[in-house]
Amino acid sequence: MILSRSSVQEHKAGVASRGYRGIREPPPLRKDSLNVSLSTHLFAFHDLNETIFPLFPRHGFSLAEIWAMPPHFPSADLAAADAVARRMAEHGIRVASIHAPLYPDVRTYKKDRWYSLSSVDETHRLESVAVTARVAGWLARNDGGTVVLHTSFPAEQWYPHRWGAFLSSMNELLDAVPAGIRFAVENTPVDSGQVGVILDIVQRYPADRVGVCLDLGHAHIEENVLSAVREAAPRLIHVHASDNRGEKDEHLVPGKGGIPWSQVTAALREADFGGPFTVELRDSTRGENPAYKDFDRILTECRAFLDRMFRETP
What we know:
Layout: H1 5-17, E1 36-39, H2 55-58, E2 63-67, H3 78-90, E3 94-99, H4 122-141, E4 145-150, H5 161-176, E5 181-186, H6 195-202, E6 210-215, H7 216-222, H8 225-232, E7 236-241, H9 261-270, E8 277-279, H10 295-312
Parallel strand pairs: 1-2, 1-8, 2-3, 3-4, 4-5, 5-6, 6-7, 7-8
């Protein structure tokens, strides 16, 4: 199972022809930040525009992870996507990573068929590879970084067919995407998404191309989070940080759930993890009884906890 030659050639031609120049250097990072980054997952139901961009420097975030789901991020319109990178750079924000698309449209995600790099429907799998390669190519043209992937394994009956499909997709992505891009395979809160399973995938590939994205919230639900940090350490290249109470993936501000953050950050430092430490929060300003009035209040609370947490970590 391979990506069609025409798709690969079209992707590589786009990388060569649509590069963006002139991105301004971001402001210096906080020294104790583990290269803290903010995922635009928080703003998923909003376009990335001048309402959102100032929130990053206002709350001390100079790195971003793009949640690449349309229309929040115009992944199918490369010119519009390049404009997003340009405007973010003008606000001193560097795109450090991008989360590969999970579904075609954030407005209809509950009814759409989600993308899956492990689909046993070959047409669907190749479509999923193509959309992932497209956003990876965009990241390559905009200074490079890390592409976060989900395996999309079901909780059961994922081996050997879904496993084999994912490895085929991984091989095709490595062939299609420039070498400056790394892929981080994320653990998920099901048995088939535990860190041991993810390690068995990434260890089949060069460390400079493929590593682990450890989602601390997912690990807190499915396994012991401290053990997960230590197990992932040899191939850990990316972290997703949010809190929960150990039962469901709530994407709470760190400190609002049950994760032992001081111990987690100490374990990350022991593992020589240098970031990005990507805060991936849920929009809690929506609904009938929202927990927060606006994004500023969410991010003020988040930044205060991060600063206190890093200050208290040896």
